[in-house]
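Students often ask why inverse folding is considered easier than folding. One informal answer: many sequences map to the same fold, so there is more than one right answer. In these notes we will look at a single instance of the problem. The structure comes first.
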């Protein structure tokens, strides 16, 4: 059965913000995008977009410095949603430091590499949503022919 005929899938990941655990998020995104028949370029774009979003969500270690992963902080939450026409990636963290200005480099990367990106603060969570249109059904059918079973 082609991927497009399957039910909507959701993958939930909670990843500590310490150490190299965060590399799981772009890897999981790439795995889902591969299953959906995204091209290699589109998969790498999604990986870079997720990395940019993670950078935006990590707490700042100080003004003018890159975000730093601090042990003992709450997890970063990731929700990968496979929908009929779109792959949605929702990344969130407990509200704390405000998200960087919308015009910074990471936001520009996100907008350049994805179809749609938005951010908001809901309750106690700062959230970034990435939406990428899925490949056409012809690509899905071609992917099905080469699917590893």
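Output (designed amino acids):
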């Amino acid at each position: 059965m082609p991927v497009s005929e399957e039910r909507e899938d959701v993958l939930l990941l909670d990843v500590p913000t310490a150490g190299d655990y965060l590399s799981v998020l772009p890897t999981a995104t790439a795995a889902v995008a591969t299953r959906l028949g995204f091209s290699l370029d589109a998969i790498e774009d999604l990986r870079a977009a997720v990395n940019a979003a993670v950078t935006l969500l990590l707490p700042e270690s100080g003004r003018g410095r890159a975000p730093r992963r601090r042990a003992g902080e709450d997890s970063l939450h990731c929700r990968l949603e496979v929908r009929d026409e779109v792959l949605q990636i929702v990344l969130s963290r407990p509200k704390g430091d405000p998200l960087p200005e919308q015009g910074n480099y990471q936001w520009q990367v996100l907008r350049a590499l994805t179809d749609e990106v938005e951010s908001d603060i809901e309750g106690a969570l700062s959230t970034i949503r990435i939406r990428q249109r899925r490949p056409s059904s012809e690509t899905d059918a071609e992917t099905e022919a080469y699917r590893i079973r």
